[in-house]
Amino acid sequence: MTDLDQSSNISNICLSSLENPFVSKIRHRQLLSQIEKEFDGLLLENITLRKELKQSSSINNNVYETTINKLRAVNIFPMIRNRIILRRRNQSSDLLFSSNNHHRDVIWDVQVGGFDNQYFVSASADKTSIIWSRKTLRPLIQYQGHYGSVNSCRFQCFDHDLVLTASGDHELHIWKLSLYDNKDEQQQENEMTPLILRNPILALRGDDVLSCADWLQRDQIVSASWNRSATIWQVETGSSLRTLYGHNAELTHVSCHQTKPFVITSSHDGTFRLWDCRTSSHSVQIFNGHTKTVNSTLFIGDVHFVSSSDDGFVHMWDFRSTNSSPILSLECISPCNRLSISNDILAVPLDNRDIHLYSIINGKKLYVQRQAHKRSVQCTAFVQCTNSMEFLLVSGSLDCHMHVWHIKKLKGTNNNKLMKSIEESIVPSSEIIKNENSGEGQYNKKPTKRISLSEKPNNINSMMEKR
């Protein structure tokens, strides 16, 4: 029946109702019976579809009912509440100290040093660097000698009173911890206001922004710059000895071996390079294992080193290997920033505000500090407490805060046998450890290049625009 027919029938009913009421009642009953037939047809069709759905469905009724019961609000809310309480309890119990208004901008670097590792040092984009007491967790010295962002800070291993800072003002500064010249040690550590220091012992000026700098043995310094090169400086004379060229983008980090003349530079070009400074030609080994910016690379022992990248992976390497494949790969999901190592334990700060601790022996995840900061965690420093298996973890973030975490226990450290030799425990270089804690291993099989570079750059292109 078409719409036109239905409208004509309704009009006929209305007209007939004026003429004969009995006829109008019959017409109404006919229409109602047609509507009932339509509803009966829809009901039968619905029943048929339900039967087909039950036959094609593979879900068991018991499992379905159990799932429904678990998803009820009465059961969901207690589980969520318990998770929130447990997370808050872990966060509050581990956090030992949080800086308030000492730094007014991003904290790019934190380090542990001084005699018996009794100090922390932080470098910030607010143009200052602060020395903290590990004992009282109070600021002792605030260095204000730079005119740009302080991008890195390093204690010297031989003279524990010397600090090296690299800045965006193109300068390297060496300054001294003159804490106890005129005051008693305990008196100065208890003071709330830090000592202001503005004059360095030595200032070295580069050609561009300096992203990082490190001590090369006792009397030399290596700086990493945004002009795609690294420079070796002589501390006594204040002159540059050599410039290392070869990267295709700005350098992000530099690390030096404590006992051997080896230097590792990391770059935005996705590679890092191992430089041998024992020869005049400064031979270099190029590693291509990452797909994005390499944010840091650190030495582990004599022949191993570890790298972090924006691709979300941390790789461990052996430079004795004939190829550039990592021997251990950790997948952290989020971009990884500047690493720190202490007693065979690796601290990885992540962009998702988490901090992960791994064993560099087997890649096992030992500890996770979730949402350690309000924004991305940029750097960490890690030190073991005296005569115990407890640790202090220092972290700096984009939220302008430095946190100190007291980690009382790590997974797998009950037997106090975690500190083993890397040589005895690491797998052969052709294998990558894969487990649920470390993640799938991925690497690039590009061969390692060993070349000798001249002092002058070849094909140095124009710099990308600075952010």
From TrEMBL:
This protein's superkingdom?
A: Eukaryota
- PROSITE patterns attached to this UniProt entry: WD_REPEATS_2, WD_REPEATS_REGION
UniProt-listed GO biological process terms: proteasome-mediated ubiquitin-dependent protein catabolic process; ubiquitin recycling
> Repeats (WD): which ranges?
244-285, 287-327
Q: Which Pfam families match?
A: WD40 (PF00400)
SUPFAM superfamilies recorded: WD40 repeat-like
| UniProt-annotated stretches for the region Disordered | 434-467
Query: Looking at the keywords, is Transmembrane helix present?
Result: no
Q: Name one GO molecular function term.
A: ubiquitin binding
Its transmembrane ranges are none
Say yes or no: keyword Disulfide bond present. no
Stretches with biased composition (Polar residues) = 455-467
Cellular component GO terms held in the UniProt record:
cytoplasm; nucleus
Q: Which controlled-vocabulary keywords does the entry list?
A: Repeat, WD repeat
PANTHER family recorded for this chain?
F-BOX_WD REPEAT-CONTAINING PROTEIN 7 (PTHR19849:SF1), PHOSPHOLIPASE A-2-ACTIVATING PROTEIN (PTHR19849)
Q: What is this protein called?
A: Uncharacterized protein
Tell me which species this is from: Rotaria sordida
